[in-house]
Every structure is written in C-alpha cells, then in structure tokens.
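Write out this protein's structure.
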Amino acid sequence: MPAWGAVSARWRRVAPTTEIRLASRYENDVNFRPEPMTLRLFLLRHGQTAMSRANVFCGRGLDPVLTDEGLVMADAFAAAYADDQWTAIYSSPLARALATAAPLAAARNLTIERRDELAEIDYGAWDGLTAEVVARQWHDEHERWSADPAWNPPTGGETAIALSQRMTNVIEEITSAHMDGNVLVVSHKASIRVLLCALLGVDVGRFRYRFGCPVGSVSIIEFGSHGPLATAVADRSHLDARLRHLEGT
C-alpha cells in the first residue's frame, strides 16, 4: 500500500520549487501571487442500476447497465461540472461506471482511461443476493465479514485490505501523472468508501460504517501541502430531489 505521507512529502517538495521559479519570472509584478499546486480527485459512484435499486450485493463479477434513472444521473453530473476544467477521466471497466463517465468525457472531449483496479469489490458467492439471504445461507461468514471486512472476505470474495491495496495503487498512479487540476475517478460503492478510509487514515475495516456513498454521489479529495483533504463526501447536490429519493442504495 502506498505511503500517503510520502505523497504529501512530494507535494511539499514540489510546491516551494515551483513558487521560487514563478517568483523569479514575475519578480517585478507586485500584484502577482503564485497559486499553490492542487490536485482534486472527484470520486464519483456510478448511477443507478437494477441491482442497486433492489439493494443486492453487486460486485466486480456482475456487470449490469444503468437504468434510465442512472443515465439521467450521469447526465446531471456532467451538466453540473462540464464548465470546470478537467485534466483526465479514469473509470472502472464495468459498464455502469463507463456509462456514468461518458457524458462528461463527451462534453470535455476527453478519453476515458480504464483501470481494472477501480472495479468494485469481489463479493464472490454473494453477488446478486440480499443481505438477508446471505445471512441465512452463510451465517458465520456473514457475521465475520460484518464485524471486520478488512480481513474477512465475502464467501469466495475479496477482503477490504486487498481492495484498499489495488485502489491506492491506481490512485498513486494518478497522483504521479497529474500534479494539479481536476481528475474524475468513476468507481463503486465499496471501492470508494475503502479508498476514502485509506486516504484519510480511517480503519478500512470500518468502511461500511464511516462513509456513505449512494448512487450518483461524488466525494472530492484535494491534495495539498498537508496531504489528502476531503472537501466533500457523498455529495449529490447535482441531482434533483426525485433522483436523490429513489429507492435503493
């Protein structure tokens, strides 16, 4: 797992050098103030699917498409943020994530960079089932997972620790490639919550109880001189009231 202290240290090393170089170029301009280099990651969960609406486990092994409402959610995000300057767009390779990324990519004429690491957690045998069914059929495994998913995977699935490792690996790639600007990262419910834990110093075993992540929501992480800072978590202000109150997760 990347050391986010090291990422913070990289920002501290780069920013002063940049300020010195800019100050030299504009030393005779008394009104000039160099802007600090800031990278903002927009962690967007995909729009609604039939499985999110039914509130069943839906991991990387399943690939449902967006519902009509899910497509509207994707369009609503793009409409709200299309006027911003975007550096890059990254997405899970699953259809629901790619379809969510597509409207903004089209509006800004950007290529969607697919990364397997951004896919949802692997729920194994639990895919497509409700929590109630899983609790009956795999009682002990479900109890252990509910208590500590960091080290206890779904039956035949993936631990939160393993998910955290692959998510932070791809975020390290992104932060190395982009020193500043706005970068959209489209992913999934468990994946985004685990990543928020990893970035913000929260036990990943608590990811289900520390952060919300409803469909179509965006969390914004700003990388500054002190490392990752959450400036928004699970924000859905870009969705209208009807979309925000649809059934499901």
